[in-house]
Write a structure and sequence with these properties.
The termini are far apart. The chain has a domain of about 200 residues: 3-Layer(aba) Sandwich (Rossmann fold). The protein has 16 helices and 13 strands. Strands 4-5-13-10-11-12 form a six-stranded mixed beta sheet, sandwiched between helices. It has a four-stranded parallel beta sheet with strand order 8-7-6-9, sandwiched between helices. By secondary structure, the protein is an alpha/beta fold. Bound molecules: pyridoxal-5'-phosphate and zinc ion (ZN).
Length: about 425
Amino acid sequence: MKNVKSAECIMCKTQIKASPNITVCPECGGILEIVYDYEWIGKNTSIEKIKKDPDRSMWRYREFLPVEETSAVSGLRAGGTPLYSAGRLGNLLGYSRLFIKDDGLNPTGSLKDRPSALAVVKAAEAGISSIACSSTGNAASSLAGSAAAAGLSSYIFVPKRAPAAKVAQLLIFGAHVISVQGSYEDAFRLSSEAISRWGWYNRNAAINPYLSEGKKTVSFEIAEQLGFSAPDFVAASVGDGCTIAGIWKGFKDLFAAGFINKLPRLISVQASGCRPINRAFEAGNEILEPADENTIADSIAVGIPRNFHKAVRALRESNGITANVSDEDMLHAMALAGKTTGVFGEPAGMASIAGLMKLAGKGIIPKDSLIVSVVTGNGLKDIKSASKAVREPIKCNPDMESLLAAFEADEGMR
Ligand SMILES: *Cc1c(COP(=O)(O)O)cnc(C)c1O
Ligand SMILES: [Zn+2]
């Protein structure tokens, strides 16, 4: 890879060669980060070149991605999701320039399709034909989809609570699905043991440094959709911490290459019932206190975040802000965003909107800031939660008399 210099440990700064199946730092076990040669990138791509590229997928930023020049990258079309101006929702919340990046429109319905697209390329580079991960749900369904497209077999460990729609996706994509009767932490541990036993390619997000490199492409798109500039704030929900760290890496890469001239501030949104990253950041330390996984938002129910340090550092470097939201806040955000924007997000997907609601009017975010809320997952993935956010439909018999009676009886229709 001509664009990549090395993989560097974020804790002890040890540098190692960026081979396809590296995991954590061999010295201290810390998380690795991919280091680029921005001079090479600047010589080999440009804003003009990117703008002319007819490929709408995340691979339009290939010069910024850690794959071999000769690697084939076909497969599912990850990326290329819309950035909507959410004026009416913004007005309701008290923000005059609110945008929604709808990453629920990726091929399997979540932002995780970006890292999964990268993971299958790295597995192929490593010469491994089976790939595995543990996941709260979306990384799993997305990996299974990408693996199916690439002709790899996949082994997926999900916790007992993974929503039915996500498990159905896995099975449809032909994955070997192991439903671990325990928590996400239990699923993670068992998958790690199985991966080392059978030598599968490891797509566990926090262990595999290439995955946040896939996630960062959401920031490239946001910047490009804003005319190659950075927003003032980017809000995203946080579980393992890999997404927010990836978002930060994306803006930092663009800044380092001179494609944007400022960096945004990050808004980390966690569930009040499971907020180990926000708690550490708020306390001003980097001490991981494991939390209960007490939230309906399964995608961010991560009591022991594997990318804890990377996430806390991203928040610190970006002068970040935290918001902790209840299940009720998320359900309310789902319904309000749904009816004012037409975007349907799962609870963790709409947590970013819930966080912005919570911060509104507190004087922390200036009213006229350019804010991007990343909706990380599609609402169809968890309709059980969605139906908690809204009322029942009006029921009537198939005749006008019954319809009139039903309208009369219904408060909203009277
Ligand atoms: C995975 C996921 C997140 C959080 O990403 P992390 O890397 O675990 O912090 C948020 N929302 C959705 C929908 C997800 O699938
Ligand atoms: Zn180290």
